[in-house]
Amino acid sequence: MLYEDKCSMADSCWLKALGGMLLALSSEGDIIYLTENVIQQLGIQQLDLIGRSVFDYCHPCDQNELRGILSLRRDGELERSCFLRFKSTLAGHGRINNNKKNDNYKVMNCSGRIVMATASNVRLNCSLEDYFHEEHELESDSKGSKVVKSSTSHFLVLVCDPIPHPSKVELALDSHTFVTNHTLDMNFSYVDEKMCQFFGYTMEDLKYRSAYEFHHAQDNESILKSYKTMITKGQIQTPPYRFLAKQGGYAWVQTQATVVSVSNQYFRSQAVVCIHTRLSDIEERDQIFSISQC
What we know:
- This protein is of the alpha+beta class.
- It folds into two domains: 2-162, PAS domain (Beta-Lactamase, 2-Layer Sandwich); 166-293, Beta-Lactamase, CATH 3.30.450.
- Helix content is 22%, strand content 33%.
- It is built from eight helices and 14 strands.
- Strands 1, 2, 3, 4, 5 and 8 form a six-stranded antiparallel beta sheet that branches.
């Protein structure tokens, strides 16, 4: 009874702490645990999902990536992170969409780790090498070769956070948050005045120029990877990166980017709306990292 009370308390704390949901998967992708707030995130009841395969609810184009994070890696890395699109029955303003003909998908920022498990315990801290040596036994196959026979299984535990649509984010009262608009190739088309004031640029300094010109060179690879994912899946959240300030220095920034449709009476196109959160003040003001800062 005490154990059940503790589990109930833990579940309640998780729900309060998470903006998204907690998801636990077997090595085959079966949903073995899911927090109740999945109804707020995807519009699907918790009991309708537990015991089902996660592949039934994951976008077909993301399933190979999902298999990859479910698998063990020979380098021993247990941490996992990716962006996955899950089926959602939610329409605008959180309403349930009863139209079964069209599958809607919601992008979730998923991060967590592999958990090794035995019949008697779950081990959160162990290396993959120890796991193979301690938890697997060798047997001979039909050709006499030694093969690994698993006596245990592993699980994947993820925290899945939604990426809010720009239309649902309140920016007016937050001095650390600002918005920019871009073409699909990430050229600036609009810059929030707060961003210009903080980094020292004018609108003319940034408009029609590529956002990549203003990223620290050491961060460009990870940012480029994030934006490629955005083009495929529609939304991303970047890792923290350095945005260069005019006349020298940089500030750490994290960006949520969303592809949106833009239309008028003549044509319809796509654009990118970025919501940036400033994580630091300007550092290394006396250092010039790019000609774009001059």
